[in-house]
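Example record

One chain of 224 residues, shown exactly as stored in the release files.
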Amino acid sequence: MSKAVPRVLYLHGFASSPHSRKATFFEEKLAAEGLAMVALDLAQGDFRGLTLSGQLSVVERAAAGDAVFLIGSSMGGYLAALYAARHPEVAGLILMAPAFSFHSLWKKELGPEKMAEWRKKGTIPVFHYGEGSQMDLSYALIGDAEKFEDFPDVAAACLVFHGVQDQVVPIALSQAFARRRSNVRLIEVNSGHELTDAMDEIWKESKPFLLTRTSHNLNVPESN
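Predicted structure tokens for this chain:
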């Protein structure tokens, strides 16, 4: 028998889509190595009602209990870590500017007045990069996010990339995450939050890390 090859799932960032530049980049690079990647639509057509719990359910349905390798960007990186902390079958993770401490980031970004207004009105308009337009977002995102831990206890091997110029998610969050865990390697890159200008560097480091946990498992005899 041969060991099953973990499928690669891509988790996009907030107000993004499975067709983002980074998702397309990884999809093309993996295809060249003979591997398929599935970029998930985490909102499932309901951006207004977006929650972390709902998105984790999307990942869980896609994984279907199998071993998977997760690649996540920003909010998707945080979601990947949350999922891996709850599913030991995850084979490995690549996280790009993961939005650890997600709930606190929103509170700090908006401030108490805007947060109170959002809660009162029930929705807030935000720019959706995937759609290229303003869309309403329910306060349910914040209410749901409050119940999740800032730094998921990930056991799988994890490679983290974070830009030293990131003005959206402070690099200090990834530094704190990596400092506590021997299974996490943090690579600081000279870039901002998007990291799109550092993708060649990211792939150079990601390729061996990813392939040893996916394609290199092909046709490996199992002991009886």
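Notes: Residues 7-217 form a domain with the Rossmann fold fold (CATH 3.40.50.1820).
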